[in-house]
Amino acid sequence: MEILEKVVKKVLGVYRIARKGYEALWDGVDTPYHPRRESLLIREKLAEGFRRGIEVPQGLMTHSKGECFDYLLGERTTEPASKALEASAAALLPSNRPSISVNGNTDALIVEDLIRLSRELGAP
Questions:
Q1: What distance in Å separates the CA atoms of residue 1 and residue 83, rounded to the nearest whole number?
Q2: What are the structural domains, with CATH classification, of the chain?
Q3: How far apart are CA 56 and CA 49, in angstroms?
Q4: What is the pTM of this model?
């Protein structure tokens, strides 16, 4: 538990320091032409999820790692990933007792969609 508290304090410290520079970037996000607008909006949702206790510090770091892969892959969903998504959806539809399990990033970003999906599938 002590190590977790240290990690949280470290992440919050870095967050506070970075926040000042981040706010400078945020000023330009209101325009739809900002090149990283979507990324910054997602990052802000994740940070809000962290403040509300939905997100864990590791989730904030995971978002950044995912962005690295986006840059390497040209910010597109690969064919195998698309097929995996389709297969997952196909497996949920006929299930008698479907279950949805997501991480904090997903919950913080699309909670309304998850609730709607849960209702559609009859998943608790």
A1: 40
A2: 1-124 (3.40.50.12640)
A3: 8
A4: 0.45
